Amino acid sequence: MDLTRLSLRTRVFLFFAALALGNLAALVAGLWFGFTRLGDPDLLNAMVIGGTVAGFAILGLIAWIWFLFDENVAKPIERLSGMLRARTTAEIEGEMDVDIARHLGDLAPAAASVTRHLSETRNALTEAVQRETTRLAQEKERLEALLSDVPVGVLLCTADHQLAFYNGQAVELLGSAHAPGLDRRVFDYLNQPPIAHAYERLLATEDPDAASDLLCSTKAEGRVLAARMRLLSEGEDHYVSKRPGYVLTLRDVSGDMAAHAQREQLMDELFDRIRRPAAALQSLIGVLTADDGPAPGSERDRVREAANSEAHHLSAAIHEFFERHEANRADWWPLAMIRASDLGQAVAARVAAEGGAILPVTAALMLRCEGFEMVALLAGLVRRLTDRRDFRLEITEDGPGALIALEWEGAPLPIGELERWLAEPLDTGLEDVTGHRVLTTHAAEIWPEKLGDTRARLCIPLREARHVTKRPKPVPRAVVYDFDLLARERVAEIADTPLTDLTYVVFDTETTGLLPTEGDEIVQIAAVRIVNGRRIDTEVFDTLVDPKRPIPPGSTEVHGISNAMVEGAPDIAKVGRDFHRFAEGAVLIAHNAPFDMEFLHRKEGAIGERFDHPILDTVLLSAVVFGQSESHTLDALTHRLGITIPEEARHTAIGDTVATADAFLKMLPALQARGLRTFGELVAELRKHGRLLKDLNG
C-alpha cells in the first residue's frame, strides 16, 4: 500500500492506531509472560481485569494525544499548505492568518513571510511588466511615427511575397484603388517580374548583407519606382534553412525619368544642331583657305587662319562636351554592382526557359548595371536571332569597365534590323522599357561585329566594373536608438550625476613599449561607447597609429602589430584629434588608466586638445567590489566575472577594450548595491584605494 497517496491526517491517524495496537500487544504479552511465570490460576482474573483497565487507559491516552496532535499539528499543516498553495497560484491580498498554526513554532510566521515576499515580488514584477509594456508601447509609437515620416515607401514582405508591414509613403506610391492590406501579395500592387528576379538573384548570392537596386512599376497607375531590396536574416543557420523575407524601399522616379528624358532629348538635339553647323563651318573655312587664296602672310590670310583655328577649337569643344555628357548620362540612375557570373547565369536561365541555349563565359568582375533589364535585353536579342545557333555570352574586362559580347554562329546582324529591335518593348512588364532605354540607362551603346567567316557578335560596353574581391565587412545598417534619452534630465554637476545616466568611452592603447618618458609611442587606439547602461555595438573607434619610430620585436610579439602594418597609418596628431571628438562629453574608462593617459597627455601639444575628461579605472573599481587582496589584472577580473576574451583578441586594443567595457557593466550593479549611485560617491570611494593605484580625477 502506497501511504503517500493518503492525506496527512489519515497517515497521522494510522500512526497513532498502530501505536495503540502496539501498546495493547505489549500489554497483553507482558501480562501473559507474568502469568506463566507465577503459575497461579487465582491471579488470572485479576490480571485480566488489570490488563483491560490498563488497555482502556492506554487507548484513551493515545486517542487523546492523537486528537491533540490532529487538532494542533495535522489540521494546521493541511490548512497552512492549502493557503500557501492558494497564495502561490492566485493573487490573494492581505496577511495570512498565523493563528491557525500557533502550535507549530516558527513555521507559520516563516510561511507568512514567504507569502508576503512572494506577494511583494509578484506586485513588483507586475509593475515592472506594466512599466516595460508602457515603455515598449511608447517606443512602438515613436518608431511608427518615424517610419511614417520616412520619405520613401517601405514594404516588409515574407518569403511568399505577402505584405507584413507598410508605411504611409508606400500607400501613396502604390496608388491602388484600395489601400494595401497585410498578408496580401505585393504583386497585387507591383508588377512581378523585376521583384521576383531580384529576390531570386539575392538568394543565389548566399550573402545576407547583399542588396539589389531595381526598377518596378505599379499596377494601378503604371508609375515607375526605383526600389532597393534587402533580405531579412536571423543568422546564417536561419538564412540557409529557410527562405527569408525581404525589405523593399520604394521611391517614385516617374517625374525624374520624364525630366531626365526631356533633358537628354534637349541635349541630344543641342549637340545635333551644333555639331552639323560646326562641321560645315570648318569645311567652308577649309575651302576659303585653298591654295588659290592670297599669298601667305597677308592680312586676309591671317584672318582665315584664325577662323580655321577657332572652328577647329569649336569642333573639339563640342566633341569633348558630348563625350562628357555621354559619360555622365547614367550617373543619376539607381544601378547596383552585380557579379558578371550572376548576370550570365540569369541570361542562360531566361534563354533556357524559352527553349533556347546559351553558354555564359564570364570573368571575375562586378558590373554596375540594372540586372533585370540587361537580362531582358540580352535574352530578347537571342530570341530574335532565330536563324543563328551556338550562342555564347562572354563578359570580359575592358579598361575601367567591361564588355558584354553576345556571340553566335551565323550571319552578322544588319544595323537597320538591330535598330528596329531596340525600338520594340522588352519583356519586362513595363511597356516603355525598350532596348534603347536600357542602353540609355547604362550610358552604353551597341554595335555588331563580324568574327571570321562564320561567326558574328553584338558588343555592349559598360562604363564601370571592378574585380571580384573578398567581400569587405558590411556597413552596420541596424537602427540604433534609445528613447529613454528623450526623458533624461541633465544634471549640471557631474559629481551629482547617477552612474547610469553618464556616457562612457572605454578605451585601450597598444604601444611600442612601456616607457613613454623614454620615447615609446602609441601604435593603436581602440574605444567603444556605453550609453544608458549598454554598450553600443555600432559606435566603435579602432585605428592604427604611425609611431614614427620602429616597433621592437618584443612588443610585436605581445600585440601583433608590426612596422609594415603601421606604414601609411595616420600619426598621433590626427588620431588623437579624432579620438578626442569620439570621447567628447564622456567619462573615460580604462584598465590601468594612468598608463594610457600618460601617453595621451604627453601628445596634447601635437594633438591640440586636452584630455581633461573624468576618468574611471577598472583596477580601482575591482578593488572596491572584490577587495584589495584580490588580483586585479584584466585576465583575473574577467575570469571572476565570467567574461571570455578570445585568444586572438587578447592584447589587441579592441579585444581588451570590449572586455573592459563588459567588466565595467557587470560591476556597475555591485557598485550601486553598495550605495555608490553617483559619480561623486564613486570617486570618493575609489580614493580610499589610492595606495593601489592613483585616481586621476583632480
Quick recap:
It comes from Thioclava nitratireducens. By secondary structure, this protein is an alpha+beta fold.
Task: Describe the SSE topology.
Layout: H1 8-38, H2 43-89, H3 107-148, E1 153-157, E2 163-166, H4 168-174, H5 192-205, E3 211-217, E4 224-231, H6 236-241, E5 246-252, H7 254-288, H8 299-327, E6 336-339, H9 340-353, E7 358-362, E8 365-369, H10 371-384, E9 389-398, E10 401-409, H11 415-422, H12 435-441, E11 447-451, E12 455-462, E13 465-467, E14 504-511, E15 522-531, E16 534-544, H13 553-559, H14 563-566, H15 572-582, E17 587-590, H16 593-602, H17 604-607, E18 615-617, H18 618-626, H19 634-640, H20 653-673, H21 679-686
Parallel strand pairs: 7-9, 14-17, 17-18
Antiparallel strand pairs: 1-2, 1-5, 3-4, 4-5, 6-8, 8-13, 9-10, 10-12, 11-12, 14-15, 15-16
Helix pairs in contact: 1-2, 2-3, 7-8, 9-10, 18-20
Organism: Thioclava nitratireducens
Pfam families: RNase_T (PF00929)
Function: DNA polymerase III is a complex, multichain enzyme responsible for most of the replicative synthesis in bacteria. The epsilon subunit contain the editing function and is a proofreading 3'-5' exonuclease.
